[in-house]
Design brief:
Blueprint lengths: L4 E2 L15 E6 L6 H14 L6 H21 L4 E7 L5 E8 L19 H8 L2 E7 L2 E9 L7
Antiparallel strand pairs: 1-2, 2-3, 3-4, 4-6, 5-6
Helix pairs in contact: 1-2, 2-3
């Protein structure tokens, strides 16, 4: 199956763990297949023990779509997506690394504006959202609760 996604997946297990805890997908400069990134989320959550509620999976997929799309739009080089399920299986950390040093800025709310609402969605669907500068760009991360209580 040939597409624009060069995927490097690895199942990381802690000693004694039965479920995969991490998956990394790396894209070259070509536009990534967002649908494939979303499938990576659903596949990992399915393998990581008890599957979360459908809404939680959909929220995680939406966050992945927004963060990867932002990286492709605003960064000049390759980007990577890393998904980490916490050892206790209660949360999923989604991290997108790109080559731009510019940290994301949440635009002021404007219902009349077309576009520019993605980070508002990410922040509202996650229990934690942050960006970390790196020597060669940045990491943008969001953590989703996998508990039945859902997000905050």
């Amino acid at each position: 199956m040939e597409n624009s996604l060069k995927q490097q997946a690895r199942n990381v297990r802690t000693p004694g763990a039965r479920r995969p805890l991490a998956l990394t997908c790396t894209w070259e400069r070509t536009v990534p297949d967002i649908a494939e990134a979303r499938r990576a989320v659903t596949d990992l959550l399915r393998q990581a023990g008890r599957p979360p509620r459908r809404r939680v999976t959909e929220d995680a997929c939406l966050i992945v779509s927004e963060l990867v799309t932002n990286a492709v739009r605003h960064a000049p080089g390759p980007c990577s997506l890393t998904l980490n399920v916490s050892p206790d299986g209660r949360s999923l950390r989604i991290t997108v690394r790109d080559s731009s040093p510019r940290l994301p800025e949440v635009q002021p709310r404007d219902p009349g504006r077309i576009g520019g609402h993605g980070l508002h969605l990410v922040r509202s669907l996650s229990v934690r959202f942050h960006a970390t500068p790196r020597a060669t760009g940045k990491d943008v991360s969001a953590t989703v609760s996998l508990d039945d209580a859902g997000h905050g």
